Amino acid sequence: MKLVATAALFASLCGAASAAPAEQLPFGLDALSWKMSVADAAAAFPPLRTPGRADSDAPLTDQESRIVSSYAWKSCTFRITFYFAASGLASIFLDRHSADPQCAADALAELVAHYGAAPQSGDSVLDHRGWATAGTQATFNRMAGSLEISVVQVGGKPPTVYDTF
Q1: How many CB atoms lie within 10 A of CB 66?
Q2: What's the topology of domain 23-162?
Q3: Can you tell me the distance from the alpha carbon of 115 to that of 110, in angstroms, rounded to the nearest whole number?
Q4: What percent of the chain has pLDDT over 70?
Q5: Are strands 60-61 and 161-162 parallel, antiparallel or unpaired?
Q6: Which of 24, 30, 82, 112 has its CA 20 to 30 A from that of 41?
């Protein structure tokens, strides 16, 4: 009995060690962590050193944001918007307006490596998947012609996006 319990514990530890830690951020953003200040995040991730809102498509929100308009990762080039609530880094949104199937496959593989398998909902036009850990919620949305991914701190304040029309 003791041997079976020890073997089960060892197997679970080996499985946990082979996957990326759930609270480590995916897409090469592992130097960042939830609740980091803008200054700390910029020091850890140099592309954040340029203030946001330089992008004319940046939404007007109630949170400070930083946009990296061209972030190369594997076969993808994402636009990433980072939102900082009063408590620090709270939300990250990655988007790509291209129908590149390799980028979608790489992004999905990254999320599965970090958070495990997730069932697909949708159809041939929309592939939607979601994950949740104790500290992070992530979604993957592939639509014809675009890819949108969100990685959000559980319990963090999401940005309020104001309509500018």
Answers
A1: 24
A2: Protein Transport Mog1p; Chain A (3.40.1000)
A3: 9
A4: 78
A5: antiparallel
A6: 112
